[in-house]
Amino acid sequence: MRSKLMFVALCGSVVTIGLGHYFVENIKPQLQAKTEIDDAVLYESHFRPHPITASNTTRKRRRRRRRRNARSDPGELYARKRERADDYSSSRFPIRTHIVTQGEPRTATTLLFNMVGVSYFLYLFENEPEKIPDLQLKYYKRHDGRKVMRKSKSPHIFKTHSDLGYYLSENAVVFAAAENRNEAVEMRKTLEKDGHTVAFVQDLETLKEDGLASLVNVYVAGYGLSEKNRTSLNDYFSKWEILRQCCGKQMSMKWRNEMMPEKYKIPSIASSHPICSSIDINGVEQAFMKTELYSLIEEYPSVRGLNKASLKDGSLNGTYCSSYNYLVRTQGLSFWGTPGGRPSRTKLDGAIKSQLKLGKKNLKPEAYHLLPPSDKPMNKLMSKWMRRTTEEKMSWLKAILAARESGETLSDYGIETTSSKDGTIDGFYSGQDNTPDVSGLSDVLNDKEPEHIGAEGIAQDNHLEAHHRQFDDTRAIFLISFGDEAAKSSLVERCILSLRRRGAWDGYVVLLTDAPQERYENVWDENVIVMHPLGKHLKTPDGSPLEFTENNFSLKSKRFKTFIIDYIGMDKRLDSVRLIYYLDIDIMAGGALADLFIGLESKYDVSLEERDGGLSKLYFFTPLSEEWPLQGGTFIVERMSSRYCLELWRKEIDEMTLSGRGRDQDGLRNIYQLVQSGKETTCELIKMDNDNFISFPIPRTFDKISRQSNFPNLIHISNSVFAKWIDEEAQTDYIHKVLQLSEEEKLSNKYGKVIINPKKSDMKR
Questions:
Q1: pLDDT for 113-168, tens place per residue?
Q2: Which of 268, 276, 393, 618 is 20 to 30 Å from the Cα of 552, by its Cα?
Q3: Could you tell me which CATH class the domain 475-747 is placed in?
Q4: Region (Disordered): which ranges (predicted)?
Q5: Cα(293)–Cα(236) distance, rounded to whole angstroms?
């Protein structure tokens, strides 16, 4: 009897398991169908603007309904857990002097930064408005956040992708971004264990499911904001999020790829963006600019960067997005703001990446030391390699290929080689056993930075790194614009537009001008610093005013070139600047300024530190005319060492002023001759070759230059000399091409040929 019962029970178990498996298999397609998320529906539900949003009462009703149904519907248990998680994340945020936002790229870190920044701005506006003018928004690629935190008393909001260990500080609070909820929970635990004060960890999984309104609720609760603030934030971010996706440098990769000319499209990004193609982007931009919160932020220069598609974008003007998108469509504007699509990796770099991916496969054990730590992400490994010279890369590649048992050679990667007389390849082999010489590569494998970047820094293998560079606070560009004619012209705007767009420079630009304060208000991003001249800089050392004549009136403004270091010292934001590049305002950037900096500084040994023995240096390009040895429209100033040379130059300018004659370049010629004769030993004026760093278009060469598809780093069409002799239409077309203008910008007639009378363009008498 017992055996029969056991047999029946066993049969019942088998049937139950079988039926259970059958029904579970049958509902699998249903579960999969329910969990698949349609991108278009997601954006329609959570990111596009809606005229009506759920009220607090409606949300409370939904929560009560979930609680009632929790026992009968297991899915509601998950909803209740989510509510508890929301309650935890919506607790009041700790307030510290500094805020750090951090996450891996493409985890909505730009949204995180802007949501934190705008919400904290509202908190300060309601509670501590006196702190807003000192608030600084910073993106840091380097690991120097903690240094800034310790030194600066001004509140900062940092955005970084770096390890948060470099931002550990008692006076900072962290907002982080994660891929999913589980990662967010673990990230909070780890950060708090490491000693960080954590306010909130945003995760993409929750953001996709609940949308922006839910995220706004977290910040309203976290900063104790009002219902009016909640409405303003929802209105503001429902439009801003569309701009971030469909406009500017941080736009969706899908949308950028969709707009790219066919030859620049990336095949692996096959799908299109769900909404950008159907959006009136100008309409969204203009509606965003009309929001109450946008107008309030614009009243405070310190936080205007929040009112852009990203910190790295230009200021909105109603058509900024359509103009930027036009450049993507016509010129293949890349993520780094340069035309021509994504910079292609060289064959050598491609081979290195392939070998790094292979790891220890078919590699002799004695060569394991050639591989970097296996836990390093590939993008970080390649970023390190981009800094190395071709010789270092080739040495490592040959060493790793020689140690692989697969038998691959350089020719398998399309890399051509030439044999030397001793039978080695390219001279990179050494020793009787013909093994590669890989000495000195331990720094690469241990993730150390190179001590210096040689002249090959401007070669193709370092081209990618130049365009990957982010905000650089060790260099600044200095412009001077004086006089009514200059203020009425668009020369300054033209110059800065080229620096940002064609030069891909997002660092500091200092403009010294005697134009009224309102002339350049609300024109540029927060890294353009407008200063005004001091009257004491037009007096001799004994305090008497300088008298200028018609013949030397231009010296009045040129004298201010010699006070560059003094003006840099007048703004605390510029404390970290070590090299200053002076440019005349009729200069345009024609190529990446990172290439210019690397090339000149390595070739001419420009120093960021104070020089031994008190030696002072200035660096100038070579002019077209043999009358002067140095071209005074562009020069490099070493902040720690150049003061003595600048003072000598000022002394020469003053002596010419008293005698009623001369130009600033005459003064440079006098000093240069003293240096060459050996009579002046403390100052050295370096003459730099123009090479492809700078060109000076003149009527005789303009037609040839204008037909070239590549541009030098700097283009100087002298507005007071050569510009007036070059055909206006041809010159304007060339300028439009350099500036990468959209059709709308061209039709504005804002940029083109400009002529200024130098005797009328200087400071008012």
A1: 999 999 999 999 999 999 999 999 988 765 556 667 777 778 999 998 888 888 88
A2: 618
A3: alpha beta
A4: 51-83
A5: 7
What tokens were used for 726? Answer: 């070059």
Are the C-beta atoms of residues 608 and 579 closer than 8 Å to each other? yes
Both structure tokens of 504: 């891909």
How many angstroms separate the CA atoms of 716 and 197, rounded? 51
Q: Which helix (H) or strand (E) holds 100?
A: strand 98-102
Per DSSP, the residues of 515-566 read S-GGGGTTSS-TTEEEE---GGGGB-TTSPBP---TTTTTHHHHGGGGGHHH
CB atoms within 10 A of CB 109: 21
DSSP summary character for residue 315:
P
Q: Which amino acid is at 416?
A: E
As given in the structure block, the two tokens for residue 397 are 């590649």
Question: CB atoms < 10 A from the CB of 693, how many?
Answer: 19
Which token pair is 722? 């050569």
Per-residue model confidence as pLDDT tens digits over 46-81: 444 433 333 444 444 545 554 555 444 444 444 444
On whether the CB atoms of residues 751 and 741 are closer than 8 A, the answer is: yes
CB 547 within 8 A of CB 442: no
**Cα–Cα distance measured from residue 706 to residue 738, given in angstroms and rounded to the nearest whole number:** 10
Which one, of 613, 628, 735, 733, lies nearest residue 682 by Cα?
613
Query: Phi/psi at 507 (nearest 5 deg)?
Result: -85, -165
